[in-house]
Amino acid sequence: MAKMWAGRFQKETDTLVNDFNSSIMFDCRLYREDIQGSMAHAIMLAKQGIISDEDRENIIRGLQSILRDFDEGRIELSPEKYEDIHMAVEQLLTERIGDAGKRLHTARSRNDQVAVDMRLYVRSEITEICLLTLQFMHTLTRKAKENIHTVMPGYTHLQRAQPITFAHHLMAYTHMLERDLHRLASCRRLMNECPLGSGALAGTTYPIDREETADALGFDFPMANSLDGVSDRDYCIELCSDLSILMMHLSRLSEEVVAWCSWEFKFVELDDAYSTGSSIMPQKKNPDVCELIRGKTGRVYGSLITLLTLMKGLPLAYNKDMQEDKIAVFDAIDTAKMCLRVFTPMFDTMTVLPENMKRAAYRGFINATDCADYLTKKGVPFRDAYKATGTLVARCIELDTTLDALPIEEYKVVSEKFEEDIYQAIDLMACVAERRSHGGPAPEIVSHEIEEMEKMIIEVRAALEQNMQEGTDEA
Question: Is 453 helix (H, G, I), strand (E, B) or coil?
């Protein structure tokens, strides 16, 4: 089949170059967005008198039939026949409706065509990723609500540090994910400009209405500079950056679950449906989901580095290098969505083992700070109280006991300020309950935190679902 640029060239493209040049096998997923953009373009052309109403009707009818065939899997794509999804749609349209199909490309280029397709696609995918993130956040908050009174050690340097609750620990991750939502929303807002009408790089001499197509496709406004319109991929880089941070958060939590599942911790147990075994060790129950999420995080990082490297040396405007943006973006999106989809039910079905957490909390002197605070509240300077408590910890290690079990006589050797009420002050649940400062682990504080997070999840989910519905209506 003759190439769309036939006329200037006297020789056929080498077969190897043809395969090397083709992007149809990965940009085929943009068929819906390409057809959506083409419909808006055709309607605008007719309104501006650039094509006839009859051509517009034939083009819309033909594009709708192509969309149906794509949706139902009746179209086969190959590099031998089509170079990219844009040429595929145009060739299919021309085959079905004749010359009217050839008029669709009036006043546009593949450069602004692919730019608008990618923006439509990324915008839609951001919404879906946000919904999946909210679903995971809902699972975390529900687990937190079930474990408001589940005491566990809080760690620094992976050493037992101070008593917290499992709810408090999980809610830390919901706030990380909340920031991820804000980042993704910012990316969506910044990218919601329409490049269609930028042409190859310098706009067009036709009297097009860019505001019309921008509004029809749900963009806030047309991009202000045609060079920028066809060459900007900031939003792809920003998306991969946002997804890298999101994946980093999932990876950190995965690392914790891997540790919690081990016999050394045994704080949780994964459901059999989300674990795997060993081919040689029958006792094994491996947290492969979490380990794969850790590994796939590097894959998303790779997409970010690919795009940054791809764009760093490109002069304006469009360069063929930019064809490679799609593989990186698609893989980052697919990977993040896959991880969220499997992590959510894995976490939902996970069994928490509160007694094991409590036993761990009673070892490691994680109430030592509270012991020092006890003396400080009785007028002892904190540094002196710190030293006195350190002495008590050393004595406990010598006697192989804990602060809770150390006789009051041992306390009084260190300071006469100690009374029997020290045992109440260093009780683990009391230590947690007293930490009522904003953001602390006290059950009443965490309960309020969960309530606020639940409200946010409901509100944001409703707004996103409305956006999705409006997008469907526009399409």
Answer: helix
Quick check: 60 and 43 in contact, CB under 8 A? Answer: yes
DSSP state of 231: H
Note whether 314 and 231 are within 8 A (CB): yes
Predicted local distance difference test score (pLDDT) of residue 427:
93
CB 154 within 8 A of CB 162: yes
Residue 102, judged by CB atoms within 10 A of its CB (0-12, 13-18, 19+), counts as: middle
Backbone angles phi, psi at 364, to 5 degrees: 100, 0
pLDDT band at residue 464 using 50, 70 and 90 as cut-offs: very high
Better-predicted residue by pLDDT, 7 or 321: 321
Whether 91 contacts 212, CB under 8 Å = no
Average pLDDT over residues 77-92: 93
Instruction: Establish whether 278 is a catalytic residue.
Output: yes
Helices (H) and strands (E) in the chain, counts: 20, 6
Tokens representing 108 are 């546009």
Q: Contact, 326 vs 114, CB < 8 A? A: no
Q: What is the DSSP string of 161-189?
A: EEEEEHHHHHHHHHHHHHHHHHHHHHHHH
- pTM above threshold 0.90: yes
| pLDDT score, position 5 | 47
The one catalytic residue in 52, 186, 278, 448 is: 278
Question: What average pLDDT does the segment 398-427 reach?
Answer: 95
Residue 264's Cβ-count burial label (10 Å; 0-12, 13-18, 19+) is: exposed
- Which candidate in 157, 279, 437, 438 is catalytic? 157
Mean pLDDT of 146-167: 96
Q: What is each CA distance from 455 to 131, 452, 465, in whole angstroms?
A: 15, 5, 16
Give the span between the Cα atoms of 235 and 240, in whole angstroms.
9
Whether 44 has a pLDDT exceeding 90, the answer reads: yes
Write the pLDDT tens digit of every residue in 107-155: 999 999 999 999 999 999 999 999 999 999 999 999 999 999 999 999 9
- Per-residue model confidence (pLDDT) at position 280: 82
Tokens (6 digits) for 189: 């807002």
Dihedral angle computed from the Cα positions of residues 227, 229, 232 and 234, in that order, rounded to the nearest 10 degrees: 140
Show Cβ contacts of residue 185 under 8 Å, excluding neighbours closer than 6 positions: 126, 130
The gap from C-alpha 454 to its chain's centroid, in whole angstroms, comes to: 19
Q: How far apart are CA 11 and CA 25, in angstroms?
A: 25
Rg of the chain over CA atoms, in angstroms? 30
Question: Is the bond into 88 cis (omega within 30 degrees of 0)?
Answer: no
Residues 268-306 have pLDDT tens digits of 999 999 988 878 887 888 999 999 999 999 999 999 999
CA distance 118 to 65: 22
How many C-alpha atoms does 362 have within 13 Å on its Cβ side? 13
